[in-house]
Amino acid sequence: MNPDRRDFLKLAAGAAVLASLPLQHCLAAMTGKLSVAAPLGLPQVILARALQDPDVNARIPERELRNWRTPDQLRAWLARGEVGLSATPTNVAANLYNRGVPIVLMNVNIWGTLGMLGLPASGPLTAVENLAGKHIGIPWRGDMPDLVFRFLIRKAGLEVDRDLRVTYQSSPLETVQMFVAQRLDAAVLPEPVRTAARLQAGQFGQKPEELDLQEEWGRLTGQGAALPQAGVICRRDLLEADPQALEVMQSAIGRAVSWVTSEPAKAATLGAELSPLAENVYQGAIPRTQMVMMPASKARPELEAFLTALAELSPDFIGGRLPDTGFYLPDAVS
Amino acid sequence: MQMNTESSLVSSPIFAYGFRPFFLLAAIYAPLALLPWVGALLQLFTLPMPLPPIAWHGHEMLFGFVGAALAGFLLTAVPSWSGYEPVTGGRLLALVLIWLAGRVLFWLCAAVPPVLVAAVNLLFSLALLASVVPAFCSEGGRAHTSIGVGLAVYVVMQGIFYLSWLWPERLPGMTSIDVLNSTVNLLLVMIALTVSRIVRVVAMAARHESGLCGPFRLTVARERLAVFMLVLFAIADVFAPGHAVTGWIALAAAAAQADRISEWPWGRSMKRPYLLLLTLSYVWMMVGLVLVGITDLTALLPGYTGRHALSAGAVGTAVLAVLCIAGLRHTGRPLRLPRVIWIALAALVVTVILRTLVPMLWPEYYLLAGVALPFVFWLLAYLLYIVGYNHYLLSVRADGKPG
Fold this sequence. Notes:
Chain A is an alpha/beta fold. Chain A has 15 helices and eleven strands. In chain A, strands 2-1-3-10-4-11 form a six-stranded mixed beta sheet, with helices on both faces. In chain B, α2 packs antiparallel against α14, α4 packs parallel to α12 and α8 (176-209) runs antiparallel to α9. Chain A: It comes from Marinobacter oulmenensis.
């Protein structure tokens, strides 16, 4: 075998491997269309605004925004290369990474979306200790709202089943309906679903008690009242193919987060256009959500502390271990 | 020319008797009145309003929809019982216009002075009361004074509702929801009193039509006990809502109603629409009272449990029964319900089952199966009523008699 032939075979093998990868979708995306995904709610508003950014428009002419409803759907889209970039809860991002999906975390931008609503008739709700003897509803067992709630309950010296009753529903909508039907004393809900429930309870002339779980976390742990709950991930091959484009997106996301917090009325209008939730739901949800864009590498210490605390309750939550350095977008790009 | 138009309007069949315009308006308004409430709960649209949407909803169902049905019933039944001249033509048109003004103002209540909204709505009830009081005072009407007293209390309850809305500080410890619950209880008492007047004729007719003969009697004392227990519950629910004693009284009232209807002819006779509708209304009354009793005694269920069985169930069935039966009887037709009405009745039963049971048993589907779906069935029930009865209500009597 002469060197020329060897080089040719190497090249052929390399081409075959490349061809078998879904990379071409993403490469094509950066020169043409970029597919971005987000769950319903404020992450969707942030990414929609980022995609309207003039810099993004100039760098990536064709863009699309999709909704993902379950992490499995997102995983499939990422694995097939149908989506290059997505907003996700941080635990879903860690889980995808630990299960071998080639992604990197670009940033964390949602630092407080969890809270509780309490029926006024069930007594005051100013601290999780008030929940003793109560019936609490939570959407999805083992998800972030559940684990944050259980962490806080444990910190407060309470025990589920011994001191309080917890029932799980299969979606936030079901929890909202149970709360509105007054079949729960309190409900753990993220925004904007929490505001939707609060407004619906208001139709019945009720003013539900509100408890911010981030503040409870700060009170019970002595740490800050901000939790790195959601951010944006992208496919690793997108990063490798066009780091400058990602840099443009990262900056645009930062501007979009600032825009949502500084222009809540306009952001609410955009949210209502994008989703079935009404404008007043977003108007209530925005001031109740902590939003700050922090590049992933800077957020790493807080993210690791947060994920470690929750993984103690359920290791599966993050896919068995903390993600390694490869999970975080390198500083050079951020 | 204008006078001719007016005179042809007031002399048209629709204004020949009180039930005609008010039954039609009640049926049209029954689903319409729910739109802002269901729309708000499902986050579809919001009607601006200066009072809690649930209070708006309760008012429009009890003083709008039921108010029209009650007006149609009293303006027809009272002259029929007492032989007193009925309200027809121009006077009837005037009552209809006040009722319509009340509805328009309640829909616009965020944009007009609330006192005006309350005044016009109260004016309708007072005008209705003034229209029937002379008949109750006549020789033939005196035997039915209790119904007249019921109407007077209904007007007082409406006044208290406006007090709780406009000057809540004057009514400490009582919310507009409490007033609405008490109004439903009052309507239950009025249903029980009306049933006492007609059940013998209805039961005998049902037995006769079913080919049954032989002795049949209803015990007056048991009837009176049932009505007395309802009145006692209504009073307890005003002064001690949610209290355990009220809970026991609710259960006792349910037992007294069960005792009362146990005397009614069951079996084949129950297929007759008159009797079936009365019984259905009573079944919902018992279910509602039991649920209210359990709620008051155990606090295991939310405070509203059972209230829809009493309002949409017992009152709603009684309203549809009156709309159907009086709509046949007073238009000179045999007592055979149009076929679509059986579907309407089934739709009403489904509405109440969903509205009552979903929040208790499947609260996770509350807004969809407990609010949206019952609305669809309620809409269907009244659309079918309009389909089945609009011709009867808008045309002259089939037997050529006046009215």
